[in-house]
Amino acid sequence: MPPEGQRVTRQSVHFQVDELGLQKAEALDGHHLLRSNLVGDNPAALWERYVQLTHIEAAFKTLKSELGIRPLYHQLGPRVEGHILIAFLAYCLWVTLKKRLQALAPGLTPQAVLEKLATLQMLEVWLPTTDGRNLVMPRYTQPEPDQTILLHHLNLSPPSQPPPRIKTQSNEYPQEALRL
């Protein structure tokens, strides 16, 4: 380096290459060292297991961040298993959507698609009849134009509207239903 106060120029800065250090670095360039306590296994199989580990870690990262699945503290074994099953199914759907997006709508993420389609909802309208029963009409909201375009790009279509059904008086309104 030039002395303090002097300008840095091509003439004032000098360097030399550490040939031995460069050769050592180049010898390791592009190579990974994987240390394992498994002896006698095929090195290619060990590398494959390591790569699987990175995929599993990425899956857990997706579960925690993108899917928003947080840890729950269950006391009973069946509940723990149920929680793991639901988390796994959510991850499978996430990966399926991601692969579909790569093929049909590159550039979109599963998170963006789910946010865009979040306003699509299903509701039920309960109407009392004169004989004490209820007419239940399940309905899906109609997609907005941008949602329709997105669904078209993904080769998806909203389900058809389900037919109305009659519920007897013993089937009361669900708690969240509005009485008309």
Brief descriptors of the model:
180 residues, single chain, 3-stranded antiparallel β-sheet, 43% helix, mainly alpha
Protein topology:
Blueprint: H1 19-28, H2 43-64, H3 77-104, H4 110-117, E1 122-128, E2 134-140, H5 145-153, E3 165-167
Give an account of the 3D structure.
The chain is mainly alpha-helical and about 180 residues long. Among the domains are: about 40-110, no CATH class; about 125-165, no CATH class. The protein has helices at about 20-30, 45-65, 75-105, 110-115, 145-155; strands at about 120-130, 135-140, 165. A 3-stranded antiparallel beta sheet has the order 1-2-3, with no helix packed on it. The radius of gyration is 30 Å and the shape is elongated. The model has no long low-confidence stretch (mean pLDDT about 80).
Structure described in brief:
By secondary structure, the chain is mainly alpha-helical. It has helices at 19-28, 43-64, 77-104, 110-117, 145-153; strands at 122-128, 134-140, 165-167.
